[in-house]
Design a protein that fits this description.
The protein has 166 residues and is of the alpha/beta class. It contains three helices and nine strands, in the order ββββββααβαββ.
């Protein structure tokens, strides 16, 4: 159709949540391309590699409207000027006007999502409560799930309006 895979990971980072980190059904994008050597508990140094298929920012996507059937958005969730610890090296940081960043990111993800398409949004509630983040988009999630040892990671599922409307 448009030459793109049906799925967009709009802030892929190290692709940590993927079963197949090279799944051809997905276009992996991120604004960073970098490798960090880190020490993980009980293991020797190992690299964190952020190597997207395409460099671009989820707040200004270079794709046509309605390009993807599924969009995954797992944006940075820690406010900081620079990536220092393992978590911020994996996911990046919210710097500057983070509310505008996330508002624009939601808007862009919904713009490139096809009518009836699904957005999976992942948010770790370490500094900012989920309710503050969901207030940045007029879209309403259908359902979600809390996970993690402290139930601070939220998975929210949205569906873009327009299902069955041609």
């Amino acid at each position: 159709m448009n030459g793109l895979p049906p799925v967009l990971d709009a802030a892929c980072g190290s692709r940590a949540m993927w079963f197949d980190r090279n799944d051809s059904r997905c276009l992996f994008i991120d604004r960073r391309r970098e490798t960090h050597e880190v020490r993980r508990k009980g293991s020797p140094r190992s690299p964190i590699t952020i190597d997207p298929d395409q460099l671009c920012d989820f707040t200004a996507l270079p794709f046509a409207d309605n390009s993807f059937g599924l969009v995954v958005l797992d944006p940075p969730h820690i406010i900081r000027d620079e990536a220092r610890g393992n978590v911020t090296k994996f996911y990046g940081v919210l710097d500057g006007d983070w509310k505008s960043m996330l508002r624009n990111g939601f808007s862009e993800c919904f713009r490139v999502l096809a009518p009836g398409g699904v957005l999976i949004f992942k948010w770790a509630e370490t500094q900012i409560p989920l309710c503050e983040i969901l207030a940045l988009t007029p879209e309403k999630p259908l359902f979600g799930h809390k996970s993690g040892a402290l139930a601070r990671t939220h998975w929210c599922t949205f569906m873009k309006s327009g299902w069955g409307q041609e």
